[in-house]
Specification:
This protein is mainly beta and about 120 residues long. The chain is about 0% helix and about 50% strand. The protein starts with a strand and ends with a strand.
Length: about 120
């Protein structure tokens, strides 16, 4: 059974940093982070595809502030979030896929999801 377990969500003030981690039960070519507010569509934040060399994708609103990384031995993916803003407040989900050629930031490309971890940024 595939499992994705997120951790690291917290409440911080604007300008602060958080580090989210996700541990997968096995290796996946694609690992990504998405976020969602109640009543809103899930938004792609960052992803990494390991098909030889790593390919990274970032959402426009986080490109200069967040960094995704993975440890293929430990089957973990980490999202380092810096310069957090109130608009970064959301439930953050880890996602995984075995899609050849990459998965990007399209939620439909990811069949496996974690339970989510809440990030709250106050002004």
């Amino acid at each position: 059974q595939v499992q994705l377990m997120e951790s690291g969500g917290d409440s911080v003030q604007a300008g602060g940093s958080l580090r989210l981690s996700c541990t997968a039960s096995r290796y996946f070519y694609c690992l990504g982070w998405f976020r969602q507010l109640p009543g809103k569509e899930r938004e792609g934040v960052a992803s990494v595809y390991s098909g030889g060399s790593n390919t990274y994708n970032y959402g426009d609103s986080v490109r200069d502030r967040f960094r995704i990384s993975r440890d293929v031995v430990k089957n973990t993916v980490t999202l380092q979030m810096n310069s957090l803003k109130p608009e970064d407040t959301a439930m953050y989900y880890c996602a995984a896929a075995d899609r050849g050629g990459g998965c990007g930031l399209f939620a439909a490309n990811y069949p496996y999801w974690g339970q989510g971890t809440q990030v709250t940024v106050s002004s």
